[in-house]
Design goal:
This protein is of the alpha+beta class. It has 22 helices and 29 strands. Helix 13 runs antiparallel to helix 17 and helix 17 runs parallel beside helix 18.
């Protein structure tokens, strides 16, 4: 077996067509060819981890890896283009800055620059191996051309076939270097002949050349004089590192903006004590040329420019990472959402394989959630530990100081009396979750291998702990309110339905998906003798006020029915009750008195959607009943009644408008669809029929409003 050709970089050993091995780097060559074919200026290849649903960045090209540092490891479920491409096995196109901000705000927060991006899966029909993204400068059209689409798709398909071949032969991929343009080597390499270099050196303004990493490869004397740093101290460094008054993330951000968008970018900076300098960056695919001069007429701009003597901030990579993860955590609603997002977004980004979130309650530490443990019992048995017990979790919570254990030996040495978890992990980061000045929990990140936590990583993890704490505090409050709302709703709706002899009944209630998940829809079955009554209604809004008013109306209907009022009288009395309450809310209502022995029902309607009647032969019709206005509008309103025949086997479907009304859907079409559904499934047991109606309703799935359904079936004769 021959040696690799001279000059070939080390990489994956890829089987050639004849079965021999090639030492050529598989991923970087495929990425370079792909980018060249579509004239993209940066890109990366991600591979799916073998033992977890995580995409890991394997090789990048065109721009430093630091640009995409927040997404070096991403969960497969993350809402970003590469994860979406791999998850859905489709091409994802982002046509520019506005498109990115609208669809992927997390990325736009970290990279608010003008560029276009395409992400594609690397997959065979049977297996997903990873994903690829490539980017173009902001001048690229907002639409991906057919040629570009076909070229990228074909290239990813070829790469997938090669990866399949490597996997089949059980050959691991070697680590490959990122593909960046070689940094210029000195003045001659950058500027050509010596005379040209002398000419540049005589220019009255500063001129500097930066490579793709932002390092100074050349600077003339004027640049060094303006910056106040000797040329030798500039070469090979990043200006925002070697020039103290440029140590502000905004200036590094301008360099990133120029490289990613390939647009000329400018900024001004204050050189203490009072000299304003203008920087103008001219980008190319190999780096930047920066022109430095004294700024004129900047007095009116002073208020908009960061102070150069302000305290230095964290490096932009850390800030980018925190911004991205902060965006993810803002999406969490309940506690389990926080746990899932920490597992999907935070843990992969810091190399952790498992997460536990603990919270204090009643003097004990309780398990709020965990992910990544093969045997959940290894962590769940610590649920309920007294806060006074000396464990890493309780100590971090009580002191507010994070703890980092680089190995199991270190953990055992510091906590010799702790219970052995035998969880299979070898390093841990315990982060106190402090929000609004009080501890709300502890986040534990577990690592499969011993892990060193350098100072900068500890700073990032501690910052992330603060973000997780804020998300957890909001989630705990939401869950508490949600539990209260559900308890209130359950108390206001009937616990069970007791239909009269000869009638079957089933009901469903679904709250709106927005707000507190509590609403004003109601239903009830009043088993008075000799005739029973049924009612369904909808108080305007879905909040606590609507729910409280709904409870009053339901109670009123029951009371008016119990004293023997006729259907039209019940509606009039309820209308006056609503007006007298002074609530300034309206309600729709449908009330019916059931007489199963005679096979009749008398109905009164107040602005409510018409019920549907399914006859025993399967035919369905909309009962267009006479009625009056909504309850709560006119104290003198009357509500005429309509008598309807209920043959044995007939089904009455009463519902609120949340079942049939949704944006963009005509109400008539929705009623036709509901009628067809009722006709086809009306012979099912009533509980199953109720589930069917709710499950197949488009409006009920979107749930911009509450949904209530009450089904009544006249039982067939013995």
């Amino acid at each position: 077996m021959g040696a690799p050709p001279a000059g070939t970089e080390p990489g994956a050993e890829v089987p050639a067509a004849d079965g021999s091995r090639s030492g050529r780097p598989l991923l970087s060559l495929a990425l370079a060819a792909m980018m060249e074919e579509v004239q993209a200026h940066s890109g990366a290849v991600y591979l799916l981890a073998a033992d977890e649903p995580v995409l890991e960045m394997s090789v990048t090209a065109g721009l430093p890896r630091a640009f995409a540092a927040p997404w070096a490891r991403v969960g497969l479920s993350a809402p970003i283009p590469v994860a979406e491409a791999a998850r859905d096995r489709r091409l994802v196109w982002v046509g520019g800055e506005e498109d990115m901000a609208r669809r992927y705000p997390r990325i736009a927060v970290v990279l608010p620059y003008a560029f276009a991006l395409a992400a594609l899966p690397v997959a065979t029909p049977d297996t997903v191996y990873g994903a690829v993204y490539v980017t173009w400068p902001g001048a690229h059209p907002t639409v991906l051309s057919d040629r570009e689409r076909e070229s990228l798709t074909a290239a990813c398909d070829r790469l997938a076939v090669r990866l399949e071949r490597v996997a089949r032969q059980n050959r691991p991929l070697r680590t490959e270097p990122d593909l960046l343009a070689a940094p210029p080597s000195g003045v001659a390499g950058t500027l050509g002949p010596v005379e040209a270099a002398r000419m540049v050196g005589r220019l009255p303004y500063g001129l500097a050349s930066l490579d793709l990493h932002g390092r100074v490869a050349f600077a003339n004397g004027a640049a060094a004089e303006l910056l106040g740093v000797h040329v030798d101290d500039l070469l090979g460094t990043q200006p925002w590192v070697s020039v103290p008054w440029l140590n502000d993330p905004m200036y590094e951000d301008r360099y990133r903006a120029a490289l990613l968008s390939q647009h000329v970018t400018s900024f001004v900076a204050l050189r203490p004590p009072g000299d304003w300098l203008s920087f103008r960056m001219y980008p190319s695919t190999t780096g930047l040329t920066t022109r430095i001069s004294r700024a004129r007429a900047v007095a009116e701009m002073v208020g908009a420019i960061p102070r150069a003597d302000a305290a230095p901030a964290h490096r932009l990579v850390s800030i980018s990472q925190v911004l991205s993860l902060a965006g993810a955590l803002t999406e969490a609603v309940g506690v389990q959402d926080v746990v899932q997002l920490v597992a999907d977004e935070v843990a992969p980004s810091v190399g952790s394989q498992a997460v536990v979130i603990l919270g204090p309650r009643g003097g004990r530490l309780h398990m709020l959630g965990h992910r990544g443990y093969e045997d959940p019992r290894t962590v769940e048995r610590f649920d309920g530990l007294p806060l006074a017990e000396r464990t890493p979790g309780t100590h971090v919570l009580n002191t507010g100081v994070p703890a980092f254990f680089e190995s199991r030996e270190q953990l055992d040495r510091l906590y010799p009396d702790r219970h052995d978890t035998a969880d299979g992990f070898a390093a841990w980061a315990y982060l106190p979750l402090i929000a609004s000045g009080r501890p709300v929990g502890t986040c534990v990140l577990a690592y499969a291998e011993p892990h060193v936590f350098p100072a900068d990583e500890r700073a990032v993890l501690t910052s992330l702990g603060g973000l997780i704490a804020q998300a957890l505090e909001r989630a705990l409050l939401y869950d508490a309110k949600n539990q209260l709302a559900h308890g209130l709703q359950a108390a206001l709706l009937p616990r069970s339905l007791v239909p009269p002899p000869g009638i079957e009944a089933a009901a469903r209630y679904l709250p709106a998906m927005h707000g507190m998940e509590i609403g004003g829809d109601f239903y009830d079955l009043v088993p008075t003798r000799p005739l029973a009554a049924a009612v369904i209604g909808d108080v305007q809004g879905h909040n606590v006020t609507a729910a409280g008013l709904m409870g009053q109306i339901r109670t009123g209907v029951r009371a008016f029915t119990s004293v023997g009022q006729a259907p039209e009288e019940v509606m009039c009395s309820t209308n006056r009750l609503l007006i007298d309450s002074g609530a300034e809310l309206f309600a729709s209502c449908l009330y019916l008195r059931l007489d199963p022995e005679r096979g009749r029902a008398v109905m009164a309607r107040a602005g409510h959607p018409p019920p549907l009647l399914r006859r025993p032969d399967g035919r369905v019709r909309v009962l267009d009943l006479a009625g009056g206005p909504l309850l709560g509008i006119d104290s003198e309103a009357t509500y005429p009644t309509t008598e309807v025949s209920l043959a044995p086997g007939s089904v009455l479907a009463l519902y609120t408008d949340g079942l049939v009304e949704s944006p963009g859907v005509d109400i008539e079409d929705a009623l036709v669809g509901l009628g067809e559904l009722l006709s086809e499934n009306g012979d099912q047991p009533l509980d199953r029929l109720a589930d069917t109606l709710v499950r197949h309703s488009a409006a009920a799935q979107e749930r911009v409003d509450d949904v209530a359904v009450l089904l009544l079936r006249a039982e067939a004769d013995g």
